[in-house]
Fold this sequence. Notes:
Strand content: 15-25%
CATH superfamily of the largest domain: Glycogen Phosphorylase B
Number of strands: 16
Order of helices and strands: EHEEEEHHEHEHEEHEEHEHEHEHEHHE
CATH class of the largest domain: Alpha Beta
Radius of gyration: 20 Å
Number of helices: 12
Largest sheet: 6 strands, parallel
Amino acid sequence: MKIFYGVQGTGNGHITRARVMAKELHAAGIDVTFQFSGRPADKYFDMEIFNGYQLRTGMTFNTEKGQVNYLKTARDAKPITFIKDVKSLDLSGYDLVISDFEPVTAWAAKNRKIPVLGIGHQYAFNHNIPRKGSDPIADQVIKYFAPADVGIGLHWHHFGQPILPPIIDTPETPKSIIKNKIIVYLPFEDPNEVVRLLSPFKNFQFHVYSPEVVPSQFDHITYNPLSRDGFQKDLYDCAGIINNAGFELASESLQMGKKILAKPLHAQMEQISNAAALQQLGYGHVMNDLDAAVIEHWLHDNHAVHITYPNIAKTLVQWIQDGMPKMDADFIEDVWDSVEVLQIKQ
């Protein structure tokens, strides 16, 4: 079998999910070509597993000071380049086209009348799940940004809908944690503002990962460049994570039993909805703005949720090899029956 797999590269969550899928696809002996779009070529890192991936410009959203800026997004869009990329993408010889919310792949396949399998968190919004911050633009983005003929939506809970658990690595649960060690990943916020916000909490060690590394004059705040391996090592033994409300990192944190404080991007329906879901499920705390009082309360709360998710990547690869039969209620129920949720004290 030969698969063409498009991945949205704007945020690291899509790429993290693709890494897990790549490992299982390669293990199954499937020939897969990955394409990424949405960020400059020099901003990708730790991409070895994708074996000679392709890059396209694609489309992305412009963020500024913790919120989506639709005017700058429209200004920076390159529709002529996008159309050229769609028209020039060669999908001949592939048995299946997959899109993780990647628009060039999805639209190239749609224009050639090739069925597209969508795999990703965004496809869960086609179902009745927690949804906040919606507006006409957000609704159109979900519907038309990367359309799929069959969409496999992913979420932390099924909400009574035909969706699956997250696609994440299933690492060994840490035997111990460093209770004052906190990971901070707020790539869409002003890094100097993040330093100012964290500076009063000198009893905690903050390991900040950011696309822009700024000097910190505080011993308890360390800035690190983006690194998959470095981040995973710090995540392993930390107590909690402060992050924007992206789906994949919260999934990894829940899988490892870390407490979560999420700050959703303003004017970004997906992140606002993710924050609402975390609160509704009792899986994490939320601050709508960078708020020192909320952070202080969260830092001293030792409650966390540890969720054991199955290997959904392996399940999906086997399902693909079986010819992608319709996922009936029994299939969905069997998958979720293997999920274990524990309330823990750190």
